[in-house]
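Quick one, tokens below. Sequence please?
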């Protein structure tokens, strides 16, 4: 292995090590939003919506940071395809509908998007842990 290849692997590992704690942080926010979402489905109201969407906003901020790091990682590992674009699966209309039409259908729709986002974060974490293991073994 050349020094350049070793440097690229070390750079990639450094980026992965930056992403993993952020994924943990995103999971905390999504799980909190999920819990508030369950409460909302059972009859929460405006305050519950505010808290839930605040948690989703926090998760979105973390996911944006993760996305930038994933793009850096993809540049480091040009030959390996890394999924980027892990954005939350909520959109402006669903947020609007959750507040304006605060009912079971809107709550369930937003909850499904939260659960989907949480699953995507967990899958990304699993893939990055595998990548880290593979990079460490060839270094």
């Amino acid at each position: 292995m050349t020094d350049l290849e070793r440097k690229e692997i070390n750079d990639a590992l450094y980026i992965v090590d930056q992403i993993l704690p952020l994924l943990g942080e995103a999971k905390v926010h999504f799980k909190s939003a999920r819990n508030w979402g369950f409460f909302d489905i059972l009859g929460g109201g405006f305050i519950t919506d505010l808290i839930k969407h605040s948690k989703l906003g926090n998760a979105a901020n973390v996911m944006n940071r993760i996305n930038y790091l994933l793009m850096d990682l993809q540049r480091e590992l040009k030959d390996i395809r890394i999924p980027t674009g892990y954005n939350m699966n909520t959109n402006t209309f669903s947020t609007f509908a959750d507040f304006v039409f605060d009912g079971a259908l809107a709550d369930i729709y937003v909850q499904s998007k939260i659960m989907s986002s949480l699953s995507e974060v967990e899958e990304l974490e699993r893939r990055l842990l595998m990548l880290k293991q593979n990079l460490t073994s060839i270094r």
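The mean pLDDT is 83. Helices lie at 3-41, 46-76, 92-100, 104-138.
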